[in-house]
């Protein structure tokens, strides 16, 4: 069956139910975890996140007060501790400078917000899109590995890296809301965990035989 991107979202939601992603108690926690999850497993990122919570309760002012060595030790379970701790310090400082007001930042930067985020240390395209979706409430698409694998199975070709899909689909079209964008990312990642280990499991999924039309 041919599916539009919104058809795909609706079909996944019907079959899987809501995932309520990103599971977190605050935007500050999401910012930290969006950095920690880079190039590591969910288990490792969660461990580092729990250490940061225990030490700072995700309070960005308390994070700024930590020494580099203290923050690196907390980040260590997620790997790349020097780079990620610097990214957490940089992004949290930027967010504090904007009074931790995501709506005001959207109003200030408008269409330039993504480029502004990309200038911050440790924020690449995927992390920027996660922040746009979950912090700044934009109907952004996150073209992560699970999304590229899924879309490849649904007939799209040439999805070799993040930019190869992101160039085709950056913002989700109407009638997607930012809440839909958040849920869609969660559905794709949960689907990937169920059906892409190994990838041939896709043939046993409810999307087998469908084709995506962008």
What would the principal axes of the Cα set say about the shape? globular
Estimate the helix proportion, in percent: 55-70%
Q: What is the first-to-last residue Cα distance?
A: 14 Å
Assigned CATH architecture of the largest domain: Orthogonal Bundle
How many β-strands, per DSSP? 2
**Oligomer state of the chains in this structure:** single chain
Mean pLDDT: 97
Q: Which sequence of SSEs, written as H and E, runs from N to C?
A: EHHHHHHHHHHHHE
Provide the gyration radius in Å: 18 Å
Q: Unreliable stretches, pLDDT < 50, 5 or more residues? A: none
Quickly count the domains.
2
CATH fold call of the largest domain: Endonuclease III, domain 1
Strand order of the largest sheet: 1-2
List keywords for this structure.
214 residues; mainly alpha
In words, what does this structure look like?
This protein has 214 residues and is mainly alpha-helical. The chain folds into two domains: 2-20 and 140-212; 27-134, Endonuclease III, domain 1 (Orthogonal Bundle), CATH 1.10.340. It is 58% helix and 2% strand. Helix 1 crosses helix 12 (178-195), helix 2 crosses helix 3 (42-56) and helix 2 (27-36) packs antiparallel against helix 6 (81-97). It is globular and about 55 Å long. The protein starts with a strand and ends with a strand.
């Amino acid at each position: 069956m041919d599916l539009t991107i919104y058809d795909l979202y609706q079909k996944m939601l019907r079959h899987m139910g809501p995932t309520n992603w990103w599971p977190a108690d605050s935007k500050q926690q999401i910012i930290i975890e969006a950095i920690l999850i880079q190039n590591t497993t969910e288990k490792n990122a969660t461990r580092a996140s729990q250490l940061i919570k225990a030490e700072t309760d995700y309070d960005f002012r308390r994070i700024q007060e930590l020494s580099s060595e203290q923050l690196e030790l907390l980040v260590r379970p997620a790997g790349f501790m020097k780079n990620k701790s610097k990214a957490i310090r940089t992004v949290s400082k930027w967010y504090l400078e904007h009074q931790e007001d995501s709506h005001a930042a959207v109003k200030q930067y408008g269409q330039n917000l993504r480029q502004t985020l990309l200038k911050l240390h440790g924020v690449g395209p995927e992390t920027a899109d996660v922040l746009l979706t979950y912090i700044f409430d934009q109907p952004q698409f996150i073209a992560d590995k699970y999304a590229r694998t899924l879309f490849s199975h649904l007939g799209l070709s040439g999805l070799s890296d993040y930019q190869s899909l992101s160039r085709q689909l950056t913002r989700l079209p109407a009638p997607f809301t930012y809440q839909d964008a958040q849920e869609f990312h969660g559905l794709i990642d949960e689907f990937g965990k169920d059906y892409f280990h190994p990838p041939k499991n896709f043939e046993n999924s409810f999307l087998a035989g469908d084709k995506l039309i962008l």
